[in-house]
Design a protein that fits this description.
By secondary structure, this protein is mainly beta. 12% of the residues lie in helices and 39% in strands. It has a 14-stranded antiparallel β-sheet. Strands 4-5 form a two-stranded antiparallel sheet. A hairpin with a 5-residue loop joins strand 8 and strand 9 (139-150).
Length: 329
């Protein structure tokens, strides 16, 4: 078994991420009978000199924990360093997160640990399986990740197909107070307003414009700012949370008398030109009502699939269209 370790400048050679977006400290790569794999580590300080503490949130007891949404980004970066066979002029764009399941949290007082394994390629797609571990090396999350290997000479039919749909209808916009998402930094709230909610509470839409001064613009990526894929996933959770809040405030029969409940939904993220930037299947969240707060706390439980279809850049306006919102417990 061959083993090498990457840190600091060695990681920068593999990754275009910089500053607060460089969510790796060390990577130990090895070749095994199962294929290439990496053991990855990250420690976010409080405060963090690189500003990476933006990826921390408060647990229900108030203690800081790593955001479960950033688990997938952490594992994705740990997967990129396994792509040692990519041609020099090629790029790997992460195209999907599938079968994400979370069973626990990781305290920010401990390093975040994980491992990724490269699975068999499927055409231009590179496939990986990743696990997140706590300080006791117990698994707290797992997911499958797929990257699309893009090269300039690739034929048009080989490239990922774009999807275009109708832009959602906007009724009277209801502004969102991001301070109500009290368990996380307001910069990690990817919703500006509620555009519409159906009368039966099973669908709704939120709106968000990605600003050019967002903290992630500088490091993702320098000179070529693109909205992080996981922030679109977070925006889908924020849209579901706004819908749950509407149900709570109206004392809807599906949530009446429940201080906590789980819900699942499908979400499409649609750009102002109708292009679908991202689609999410079976996003499951646990909601806990907060005393004196209109917005319930939302904790990520699972997601069947997050598919990334089109890039989002600063000034792009996104419509997070939630459908099939259903209480499951």
């Amino acid at each position: 078994m061959d083993l090498d370790q990457l840190t600091g400048n060695e990681l920068i050679q593999f990754l275009p991420h910089r500053g607060r977006n460089l969510l790796l400290d060390t990577v130990d790569r090895s070749e095994t009978e199962k294929g290439a794999q990496a053991e990855i580590n990250l420690k976010i300080e409080q405060p963090d000199p690189k500003g990476r503490d933006i990826f921390l949130e408060k647990a229900p007891n108030g203690d800081p924990i790593y955001s479960p949404f950033m688990f997938a980004e952490f594992l994705a970066l740990g997967s990129i360093v396994l792509l040692t066979d990519m041609p020099p002029d090629s790029m790997a764009y992460f195209s999907s997160i599938t079968n994400f399941k979370r069973t626990g949290s990781v305290s920010a007082s401990s390093p975040l640990k994980g491992n990724t394994i490269r699975n068999k390629d499927r055409g231009p797609f590179r496939r990986f399986t990743g696990r997140i571990l706590d300080s006791s090396n117990q698994e707290v999350a797992q997911t499958d990740i797929m990257a699309f290997a893009f090269s300039p000479d690739m034929k048009e039919e080989e490239r990922d197909e774009k999807k275009v749909t109708e832009k959602p209808q906007v009724n009277d916009e209801q502004s969102i107070n991001k301070e109500d998402f009290s368990w996380k930094p307001k910069e990690m709230v990817f919703a500006d307003a509620i555009a519409n909610v159906s009368s039966d509470g099973t669908s709704g839409t939120t709106i968000y414009t990605y600003p050019d001064d967002h903290p992630f613009v500088e490091g993702h990526f320098p000179g070529n700012p693109i909205m992080m894929g996981i922030t679109q996933w977070i925006g889908c959770a924020d849209a579901m949370t706004c819908l749950a809040s509407q149900l709570i405030q109206s004392n809807h029969s599906t949530v009446s008398g429940q201080s906590t409940f789980e819900a699942t939904a499908n979400i499409e993220v649609i750009k102002q030109d109708g292009a679908v930037a991202c689609d999410v299947k079976a996003l499951t969240l646990k909601f806990t009502q907060q005393e004196g707060n209109a917005i319930p706390r939302a904790d990520l439980i699972a997601t069947k699939r997050v598919g990334f279809r089109d890039m989002v850049r600063p000034h792009d306006t996104l419509y997070f269209q939630v459908t099939n919102f259903k209480i499951v417990s």
